[in-house]
Amino acid sequence: MAAVxxxxxxxxxxxxxxxxxxxxxxxxxxxxxxxxxxxVVRFARESDSTTGETLNTVYSVxxxxxxxxxxxxxxxxxxxxxxxxxxxxxxxxxxxxxDAIGDGxxxxxxxxxxxxxxxxxxxxxxxxxxxxxxxxxxxETLEDEDTILTNSxxxxxQSVGETVAGYLLAFARRLHDAVANRGDRRWEPPAWDEAFTxxxxxxxxxxTGTLGTGVADVLGSLGVRVTxxxxxxxxxxxxxxxxxxxxxxxxxxxxxxVIATIPLTDETRHCFDAEAFAAMREDAYFVNVxxxxxxxxxxxxxxxxxxxxxxxxxxxxxxxxxxxESPLWEFDExxxxxxxxxxxxxxxxxxxxxxxxxxxRLERGDDLQNRVV
Length: 373
Description:
alpha/beta
């Protein structure tokens, strides 16, 4: 199994998605680091234990990826999103045993596909997360145990993009009011100045990775002007304008919709706080399809109570399921969905395509797609 052999602290500028581990060719760095030739390298951002300075670190990793996978388990936790059997059936032609498993069977597997993390998975050579977000997995422990972690980045852009478009259309066309009125058998059209069209509005998407570009692509097709916020201002084709992270407050200050699609990191925790909501327009809507903890929920509640923003569509929360006593349930202008923005009947087969590709790469000894650890 691949093992870390040496690290090299660098003081080079970060890549756009430098917070994510990335496997790259040694040849691209041969002029910068003194690493053995038969290696690949992995980037990480770390804090120096002595000075506290954040360094860009390169780990030299053995390029040999010859791992024997004889049994792959599809963990029962995936049932939150799709039946385990759906994925098992889609992988039935692989040259290995694929089974739906519970907690007690993890140790009998060489690899596992999962939603949740369990310490028993450290006995596996490879863990694949069915989500893009992997903040529930203990990176350092996985590295210490030489357990590979891959994720499902790349499969959620369209589904999440369409969900976000649905939120925006619901607010603009007052569809959430119609649904609420139906429950009371109440015939009540919107006021003359309530409904609007989203064509010509501006949406600021904070986070321009797979989710963000998927959202931008869908909204752009509906005539929405889409701006983005990322580490650099380097343009992307899906966005009409780009802002750097340091300019977040400026970026969201004139948007009709502010949409969070950023991963959860130490830097992004409570990124949307009282200052951010104060910077938004009073007629603007906030959407979160990222992670619950990128939002300071008490600050969001205060902004809604004070009418500092028009409303919010929330798919993720700091505590899930959202507690019954949460005030977020009480607002007419808040749409709550149960962490399902990426759901689609094709979810299982889409995950299967990544798993299938990585099984083939392991057989060839190639770098894995979407490798995180």
